[in-house]
Design goal:
heteropentamer; A alpha/beta; B mainly alpha; C alpha/beta; A: alpha/beta; six-stranded parallel sheet; six-stranded mixed sheet; 46% helix; C: alpha/beta; four-stranded antiparallel sheet; binds adenosine-5'-triphosphate; binds magnesium ion; ATP binding (chains C, E)
């Protein structure tokens, strides 16, 4: 194979979130790296996590007939199904990220790269229960975009796992503005901590907020280690927070891989005729013991 | 303009009986010039659209010759059209309505509930339209009879209604796969000769609304009320009722839009409609309806919606990354405003 | 004179604690020109707003052709044949002449659709009737492009449409020049000649004296004088009467200068 | 009101020389009544705030006696205050500015660049303020000299500027850990007796702006321009310049706000500022500044910002899930508008 | 008469293709009252807008105390001691009386901060000076709460502030009653007595005749007549002259009715 063996392939890649959010940026960088390594022409699409918009963008993506599309699974099986059918008819290879769409994949094929949301959430819940030394009857707070079923599936999983272990979980629905500026969440989080004084652990939905834990804790008058803070993703801010002892656990869903692998797989499908990849990127947990490994990568927005 | 200032009115009335037989004639003797003058705003919008598309096409000719690209835009464009058009009425009437995204969400929620409960989708559509009507009436009454600023009050209502949806659904979406086999789907959401049928409905709606605007008492009264409410009141027009009616019209439009959106996606999300706030607003003003009320253009608004729909598609198809979409959104809005400004006189 | 078109009996109107009208009787017969005069704030505009149904009186009765009416409104007033050219803000300046003339009573066919051609014909006829003969403007012209006098013409055309029986003109010549004032006066006479009635409100007593058959002087919400033309010798009489009403001790200022010089 | 309609003006001038010596007196002889009358709007806003807090406190008394709750609000509130206050000027002037979120992002980006390059944060602040000034001038000139509707044109500029940020940064954030040790941080963003110092700066800004609004030529001219631009022009006021100035003021406020936001958590995001659009707008109007221009209240706007900041906190503290936040946002906006409507007369 | 305060030489002004003024000469001397009359659209308002610097002339010279000036503007005009009460929209109705009086020339100390107490004192003095003695209102009262006459009073107080040398009144009595018209006329005499000049624009020729020392008649953008009081015998003379100018064949309408009756 040549260095740029995928050079003539055209791919549409759904980055997902808002331009510039912590998670999306790493996914974007992963995809760009893949494009640089393999040589395909990639169009990048942002949706502000608006599911209706994503469906329309997918419709347009199918219309321009690229060889491959890497789509976010958020709109769910029912919404994606007709378009997947169209793509299948037109011979467009599909990859799905971040949220699995099993019915669609079963019907029209395609691979999946990303954590199994629900499972990853559950795993994080179980891990947090263990590492934080929680007992049945303890109290924990879980923040998440519960207003969006598929985006909130992961956090719902964590809640479920903790509840099954007997933990009393308070759910706080995150506001869309918090993703743009996590400082806006300082007062509500303080209020939640004050309202639930016995809370032992707090879970956060994504990189932007988890990276801001030090600020939240200081605002609420807590010291490092008072509360077991955990969540998803890595970023330079999260690494700093580990360093400072503010954050104890994060489930790294390796967003870089979620960018890189779908493009690699699409290239393999188109050029080499390989079967689509199915990769669970939600393997790793970062803890105070191992955070240094990811620190340099995080700084380059690669992990 | 020049003759307007020195009218031929020096001879007082009664003396002019000799000239009474003369007929009116249009200021321009050529029909084309008259047509252009009467439709300046919408033609201006069309020009913006054509220039924009030309730029995109030059950047990537092949993509823009694919019919699928257009057909994909034509599938969801109708959703925007069903709200842009009533909003032209609202803005002409001197008001604004920022609550339509929540109304879309609310009405389509009712639709989803009815369909999920196993009733016929037609019944669901009827229920959604009734919901939209009631919500429009609620919002309109609050603004008009409460005497509130529509900009802020409708923003508040948007929060309030969306909040209600969220509180009750706790984020759960509803998927309606059964829809695909229904008659309603075939009539409202399938394809016909490769063309999405939605667009036929939307075009019918735009034509109907354009007639309503230009050839119906309702449109005439909306314009007069937006232009000079005191005068309208003195002439016996129920100004408040007309104002409430435009909000009701928007409610109905939003309900249809929401239902169409659900039928496209087979899924109802608690956030349904939220993404339409800014593009729809932008469409109205890119379309050439000014903010000060009294005048506007339905067809221009529709062309504005087409323009706004194609920005994102065009940017990506032209090979620019998604990061450029916002920039072009802003650019098109500013350029259109400047164009209309230069193209339109404001009389007082 | 002829039939009584409208009569107001003991009309009172208060805005909050301010009494704009404190029990006013007024009637207009067919074919007569009534001149309503009075100081600023005397209540003239309030009175005609009540006549035209725009403002509801606090108390009092309204009789149309000697029959009391309930639920008086702008629409009822127009149905009764009363048309009003208001003091200001009478036109929607961004709309066409047609739309202004048919404002609030669009010519519609079934389902409220406009009869566009009929409206244009009628508008043309009306404009010609009041001597609006400029070839530069069509019924489609925007009112904002017209001069002040032409705009007044549109308002008047709107009022004479449908053979109104009583036309109310609230200070129609304010800020008009002699030439244009003359037009309005000529029109008033045309209307009277056709057997219609006019209620003419004005500040310039000379003008009102020239044209009215009967004078009603309002003062602070009350009728201070009702007089037939035959009872008043000259405009000066009327002026003196008004000055007496307003300032029993004599009015300083207005004629001082002339007297000093004379 | 009653006496206003029957003024004591029956005696023409010249006859009144005997009374010339008399002194003016305030309509109310009691100072408290006068104070209440002069500050109706801001007192109304305060009442809304107090009622809202009372409801929350009854729902959960313990949380609201904890200082941390307040100190956490006081950390983020200043960011909003620095934009709410200039926006009161903009709205009083009869305009609106929706471009401040992008200005916040742009100016704080410049700050981040300067600090990252190793220069002193004070220099960064200066550079950010200069950026904000220039952007405010750009937006203001476009609206004022281009004669565009500020509602739509500033919305367009917000897209355009944010698009530029996105295109250049491709989504990358900048982390500025070194800030924590700087003098600028100690002065602008640390704590003092457990109180976040930001709030002192914000209060100083509000007081300064309130004086500017009520006791300075600038404020006087802003009000007159918003009230009656024709008259202002006839009296020799450069109406356009005053309008541009309010946009510049907003640009400066947004720059300071953006910088403060970055100093709270040492990170700049390409989305910085975006989250403030709706809460800040709502604050201005909840605060009692009407949309029609000419009047307004800086202190009311500040109280409005406090109210809006406490909605989320209060909902969470009262033990409701976040789903209720939007609902309460809407409810407070509507109730405030109704309250101010009843409280405020509009003169023409 | 005294010193020449301002002089306009061959002033032309066109709006697009419309000539509002086609070469006008006008001067005002110290202490005289000039009455400017003319039909609607004759260009009176345009002329005084040029005098007050609000509108720039297309061509022509402006001389202040016989010295030509360049860069004439609203600010320069006020510096030269010219104050104008415009035909309409003169006040910001949501603001206090003080703010209206000092609009555009706030009394400021260092750095532009207002001298609040000084402003109140001065406002009180001015309002008393023009006879605004109601105890209901203070300088803090909102202008929107005042009656039309009282609002005119605020506009006049604003004009006489700073001992202006020339006060321009553009139809100050339109829509005012006799009582209130009298007030304005009294004031005009007060101002003349104090040695200041006045340019008085009006439609009512009787009124203007009563008060002016010199008459300037504008007709379609040109000066049709300039006459000293001594040259004109009566208001009727002036009226006849204007009718001749406007309609060389005689003006129909206005006096028809009276003649028919006589
Ligand atoms: N909408 C209103 N609210 C409160 N007071 C009002 C209102 N309209 C009129 N008034 C008051 O009622 C009284 C009568 O006013 P009106 O306008 O009828 O007088 P007018 O005789 O028409 O005066 P003008 O000669 O100035 O037109 C005045 O004192 C006026 O201030
Ligand atoms: N801003 C403008 N744009 C275009 N034409 C104008 C403008 N202002 C005035 N004109 C025109 O200039 C001419 C003179 O107007 P002007 O207002 O000076 O007359 P006037 O003598 O003051 O009339 P009036 O007695 O009605 O106050 C008119 O033909 C008018 O239509
Ligand atoms: Mg009146
Ligand atoms: Mg004039």
């Amino acid at each position: 194979l040549d260095a740029q063996w995928c050079k003539d392939v055209h791919i549409r890649f759904f980055v997902g979130g808002a331009e510039g959010d912590a998670f999306g940026t790493i996914v974007y960088n992963g995809a760009k790296q893949a494009a640089a390594d393999l040589g395909p022409k990639v169009d990048y699409i942002f949706s502000q996590w608006d599911v209706e918009k994503m469906v329309q963008q997918l419709r347009e993506a199918v219309a321009v007939k690229p060889q491959g599309i890497a789509m976010m699974g958020h709109p769910g099986d029912a919404a994606i199904m007709p378009l997947a059918e169209q793509a299948h008819k037109d011979g467009i290879k599909m990859m799905y990220q971040n949220v699995p769409v099993p019915t669609v994949v079963a019907a029209f094929g395609g691979g999946y790269v990303g954590a199994q949301q629900e499972q990853q959430g559950r795993a994080l819940g179980a891990e947090a229960f263990k590492l934080a030394g929680l007992k049945a009857g303890d109290k924990a707070i879980m923040i998440g975009p519960f207003e969006n079923e598929s985006r909130g599936a992961r956090e719902r999983g964590t809640v479920a796992a903790l509840k099954e272990a007997g933990v009393d979980v308070v759910q706080i629905n995150s506001q869309t503005e918090w993703a743009a500026d996590p400082n806006l969440a300082i007062p509500p989080i303080t209020a939640a901590l004050l309202n639930n004084p016995g809370v032992k652990a707090v879970g956060y939905p994504g990189g932007q907020m988890l990276g801001n834990v030090a600020t939240y804790m200081q605002a609420a008058g807590r010291k490092p280690g008072d509360i077991f803070n955990f969540g998803f993703d890595t970023s330079p801010q999260i690494v700093e927070a580990f360093k400072g002892g503010w954050v104890q656990l994060t489930a790294d869903q390796q967003p870089f891989m979620q960018g890189y692998l779908p493009i690699l797989s699409l290239c393999q499908q188109v050029v080499l005729g390989l079967a689509p990849m199915n990769v669970d990127t939600g393997a790793g947990f970062v803890t105070p013991q191992n955070y240094e490994i990811v620190s340099e990568l995080a700084k380059q927005a690669l992990r | 303009m020049s003759k307007a200032m020195e009218p031929d009115l020096q001879t007082p009335l009664g003396r002019t009986s000799g000239q009474v037989g003369k007929e009116w004639s249009h200021p321009s003797n050529h029909w084309l010039r008259g047509f252009v003058l009467d439709n300046r705003a919408s033609l201006g919008t069309l020009a913006v659209f054509i220039v924009m598309m030309a730029v995109f096409m030059i950047a990537n000719p092949t993509v823009f010759t694919t019919w699928y690209l257009y057909s994909s835009v034509l599938t969801t464009l109708p959703v925007a059209l069903f709200v842009v058009v009533p909003l032209v009425f609202v803005v002409t009437c001197g008001e604004i309505d920022l609550s339509f995204p929540a109304t879309m969400g609310f009405a389509s929620w009712v639709f989803a509930l009815v369909v999920q409960a196993g009733y016929d989708p037609f019944l669901g559509i009827a229920a959604a339209v009734v919901t939209g009507t009631l919500l429009g009436f609620l919002v309109g009454s609050l603004v008009v009879y409460g005497g509130l600023s529509s900009l802020i009050a409708t923003l508040g209502m948007n929060f309030l209604l969306r909040g209600l949806i969220q509180i009750i659904n706790e984020g759960k979406s509803t998927s309606l796969s059964s829809l695909a086999d229904s008659w309603a789907y075939k009539i409202f959401s399938s394809q016909f000769w490769g063309i999405p049928v939605q667009i036929f409905w939307a075009i019918a709606f735009v034509v109907f609304a354009a007639l309503l605007y230009n050839r119906h008492r309702f449109g005439a009264q909306v314009k007069v009320v937006g232009d000079n409410p005191d005068s309208a009141k003195q002439m016996g027009i129920d100004v408040k009722l007309v104002r409430v009616k435009v909000f009701v019209f928007t409610g109905i439009g939003a309900a249809i839009a929401g239902t169409f959106s659900v039928m496209i996606n087979f899924t109802w999300w608690p956030t349904a409609g939220d993404g339409y706030l800014l593009p729809v607003l932008a469409s109205v003003f890119v379309g050439g309806t000014p903010t000060w009320g009294g005048i506007g253009t339905v067809v221009g608004g529709a062309i504005g919606a087409v323009t706004v729909s194609f920005i994102q598609t065009g940017v990506v198809a032209a090979g620019l990354s998604g990061f450029y979409v916002q920039f072009f959104n802003g650019l098109i809005i500013i350029l259109s405003l400047l164009g209309h400004k230069w193209n339109q006189a404001r009389y007082r | 004179m002829g039939e009584r078109i409208i009569e107001l009996r003991d009309i009172k109107k208060s805005y909050g604690q301010v009494y704009a009208l404190g029990g006013v009787n007024l009637s207009v017969d067919r074919g007569e020109v009534v001149g309503l005069i009075g100081d600023n704030g005397a209540g003239k505009s309030t009175l005609i707003k009540i006549l035209s149904g725009v403002v509801k009186p606090t108390s009092g009765d309204i009789l149309v052709r000697d029959k009391p009416v309930n639920g008086w409104s702008a629409a009822r007033s127009r149905d009764a044949g009363i048309e009003t050219v208001f003091q200001d803000r009478a036109l929607a300046v961004q709309q066409t002449i047609v739309r202004n003339i048919f404002m609030g009573r669009e010519l519609t066919g079934s389902m409220g659709w406009l009869k566009v051609n009929k409206e244009i014909e009628e508008a043309s006829r009306l404009m010609r009737e009041i001597g609006f003969t400029s070839k530069v403007f069509t019924p489609h012209s925007i009112v904002g492009q017209l001069s002040g006098g032409e705009r007044q013409g549109v308002a008047i055309a709107r009022a004479i449409y449908k053979q109104a029986e009583l036309i109310i003109l609230d200070e129609p010549t304010t800020a008009l020049s002699l030439t244009e004032t003359a037009k309005v006066f000529h029109f008033v006479r045309q209307v009277r000649a056709s057997g219609r009635s006019i209620l003419f409100i004005g500040h310039n007593i000379h003008h009102v004296f020239d044209i009215a058959d009967r004078f009603v002087v309002l003062d602070r919400g009350k009728v201070a004088l009702t007089a037939d033309r035959s009872e008043v010798k000259s405009a000066e009489d009327l002026i003196n009467f008004m000055e007496d009403v307003a300032h029993p001790g004599g009015l300083p200022g207005l004629h001082d200068g002339a007297e000093q010089r004379a």
